[in-house]
């Protein structure tokens, strides 16, 4: 009877330990959940969601304040909610956050004297790439279509004559081998 109890007790204890561990893990996740503000007005809710997605957490690496569970992101979400309730516009809220945390909080930096290279650089590089490709294509077309001038034609004729003469002077069999031609075939 004792062996039967032991055979059931050991797996039961192991299962209870696993369940307690899973309960402990899920309690930690529930406690660290990100609080999201709910608005009665769907327009305000949509603005809140878009602003929290467009503002970057200054503590986290490339994470929006809507996705971050850091305390600073929670404060920023609260500020956004309070400013929306006060009737501020999206640009006023973004200006407030930039004044408090710097340009880094904007995922899409504004176009100004410091960021012109960031915005214009890719377009300039694309245009330069297109210019290089166009120049290469034009140069290759010209090289393919251009006829030989008189000097080049004379040099080519001399090279061909030398080549034919060297073939004629090679001692060989009566029958031409691979790559050899008779005088009749060459004419």
Task: Describe the SSE topology.
Layout lengths: L1 H30 L10 H13 L16 H15 L4 H12 L14 H30 L4 H20 L13 H4 L1
Helix pairs in contact: 2-3
Based on secondary structure, the structural category is: mainly alpha
Mean pLDDT: 80
| Fraction of residues in β-strands | under 5%
Shape: elongated
Please tell me the CATH architecture of the largest domain by its name: Orthogonal Bundle
Uncertain runs = 29-33
Largest sheet: none
Going by CATH, the homologous superfamily of the largest domain would be Cytochrome C biogenesis protein
CATH first level of the largest domain: Mainly Alpha
Number of domains: 2
Q: Please compute the radius of gyration using only Cα atoms.
A: 40 Å
Portion in helices? 55-70%
From the 3D structure, determine the CATH topology of the largest domain.
Helicase, Ruva Protein, domain 3
Quick structural summary:
It contains 7 helices and no strands. It has 187 residues and is an all-alpha fold.
What does this protein structure show overall?
This protein is mainly α and 187 residues long. The protein folds into 2 domains: 9-105, Helicase, Ruva Protein, domain 3; 111-163. It is built from 7 helices and no strands. Helix 2 packs antiparallel against helix 3 (71-85). The termini are far apart. Mean pLDDT is 80; it is low at 29-33.
Task: Looking at this protein, list some descriptive labels.
187 residues; single chain; 0% strand; mainly alpha; elongated
């Amino acid at each position: 009877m004792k062996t039967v109890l032991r055979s059931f007790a050991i797996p039961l204890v192991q299962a209870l330990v696993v369940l307690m561990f899973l309960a402990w893990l899920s309690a930690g996740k529930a406690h660290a959940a990100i609080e999201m503000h709910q608005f009665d007005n769907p327009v305000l809710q949509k603005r809140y969601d878009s602003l929290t997605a467009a503002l970057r957490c200054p503590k986290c690496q490339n994470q929006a304040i809507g996705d971050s569970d850091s305390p600073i992101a929670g404060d920023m979400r609260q500020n956004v909610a309070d400013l929306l309730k006060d009737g501020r516009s999206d640009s006023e809220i973004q200006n407030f956050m930039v004044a408090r945390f710097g340009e880094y909080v904007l995922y899409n930096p504004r176009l100004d004297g410091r960021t012109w290279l960031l915005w214009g650089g890719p377009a300039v590089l694309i245009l330069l790439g297109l210019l290089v490709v166009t120049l290469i294509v034009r140069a290759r077309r010209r090289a393919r279509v251009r006829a030989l001038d008189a000097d080049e034609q004379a040099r080519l004729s001399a090279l061909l004559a030398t080549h034919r003469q060297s073939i004629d002077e090679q001692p060989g069999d009566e029958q031409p081998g691979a790559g050899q031609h008779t005088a009749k075939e060459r004419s």
